[in-house]
Amino acid sequence: MIFEDLGLNTNLFKTIKEMGFSKPTQIQEKSIPFIMQGKDVVGESETGSGKTLAFGAGIIEKVVPKEGLQALVLTPTRELAEQVMKAIDQFSSGNSLRTASVYGGVSITNQIHELTRAEVVVATPGRLLDHLQRRTIDLSKIRILVLDEADRMLDMGFVDDVERIVRSCPRERQTMFFSATIDSRIKSLANKYMVSPEIIMAGKQVDPSKLKQVYYDVTKNMKLSMLVHLLKEEKSGLAMVFCNTRMNTDFVVKNLKANKIDAIAIHGGFTQNKRSRSLDFFNRAKFGVLVCTDVAARGLHIDNVSHVYNYEIPSDSKDYVHRIGRTARAGEAGKVINLLCEFDYDNFRRIQRDYSELSVEKMEKPHVERVIAIRVESSYGKKPFRSRKKTWRKR
User: Fold this and answer.
1) pLDDT class for 142, splitting at 50, 70, 90?
2) What is the DSSP letter of 342?
3) What angle do CA 383, 384, 390 make, to 5 degrees?
4) Which end of the chain is more exposed for a tag (fewer CB within 10 A), N or C?
């Protein structure tokens, strides 16, 4: 199938052709016909599968310029809100639609001004509720409501916020949920707020035959040394290193830089400008290693990742699957390297139990030169921020 067969309007078809897209992805092929018919849709589709164009096509087709706010897209993170808004801007370049992104961490004053002109808003739930309480946004003309990365929003505790927002929209509307996994919570929301939705299941983008997963069993005080060794020895393109906390993210990136590895960090403790700058640098290969928390595992479009390192194993098995889904995409090979110490065993066993089909090979530990770590004390807890250097003594 080609895009011409999906019934897209002329301007949109011309735009995506100019952007170099010739053939729809599976989620686009399956969902766009229903979306263009105005039906409610629940789509299971992983990050990078093209769902933004899928629901964006419906928005571009149905939203009328200069007639007020008509389409609302909810996303779990600031980065994804900005990414989706920019994508809709690109797709609608021939339709004169005005879009606005609404999220926390930046000035609300500028957003208030943008909301007076926008026909399409992409928002995180918390900041959108803030605007609703201030009466600086009018949802009375919403014709299309989209929940993007719906499962992640629920994982982050936004279910009550999401329901309040949904109830603030007109009942007569088209509603779409897109999610990496369709679980019981998504089904419950669909039953409450959707009308006979079409359920679309898209296949996985990651090629299991080209994804190699391994683990090294190391002591806690050798994790950093092993990571530095592997990053220097493994031939790789862009690499993502996942940590479970902001403080450990700061610790890892600071020590990688100290060992002459071009690394940059992103996590929820950064200002929005700093987060956006980090992603931009990484996407443009200004830095070869992105150290991050799970805020970067979902939703964000990051190409050419050859290696994923789990410096810490996540407590939620689904987060592991989303992390490893950043590599082995679009026919390219990819490698996942897990660094396990005694504190990771329970989480790793849980992943193996929940996803028994995953094959993760144990590797023999190479000879690794000991790295002297620079400690980082952070303000993310109750203690005030202080930074000082310590060294680990050899026993």
Assistant:
1) very high
2) G
3) 85
4) C
C-alpha count within 13 angstroms, C-beta hemisphere, residue 275: 22
User: Given the structure tokens 């190409």, which residue do they identify?
Assistant: 303
pLDDT value at residue 385: 40
- All structural domains of the chain: 3-201 (3.40.50.300), 208-362 (3.40.50.300)
Closest alpha carbon to 327 in 302, 291, 344, 351: 302
Residue 39: φ, ψ to 5° = -80, 155
* Helix count and strand count (H, E) for the chain: 14, 14
Conformation bin of residue 178: beta by default, left when phi > 0, alpha when psi is -120 to 50: beta
Residue 280 pLDDT > 90, yes or no? Answer: no
Q: What is the pTM of this model?
A: 0.74
pLDDT, tens only, 214-251? 999 999 999 999 999 999 998 888 899 999 999 999 99
Side-chain-side CA neighbours of residue 143 (13 Å): 15
Give residue-wise pLDDT tens across range 53-72.
999 999 999 999 999 999 99
Phi, psi of 293 (to 5 degrees): -90, -175
CB 373 within 8 A of CB 365: no
Measured between alpha carbons, how far apart are the two ends of the chain, in Å?
A: 64
Exposure string for 272-296, b = 16+ CB within 10 A, e = fewer: beebbebbeebbeeebbbbbbbbbb
* 313 pLDDT tier (thresholds 50, 70, 90): very high
Distances (CA, A) of 25 to 37, 191, 211: 19, 27, 20
Identify the three-state secondary structure at position 253: helix
> Reduced to 3 states, what is the DSSP secondary structure of residue 252?
helix
Place of tokens 């450990």: 248
DSSP 138: -
Task: Round to whole Å and give the CA distance between 4 and 16.
Answer: 11
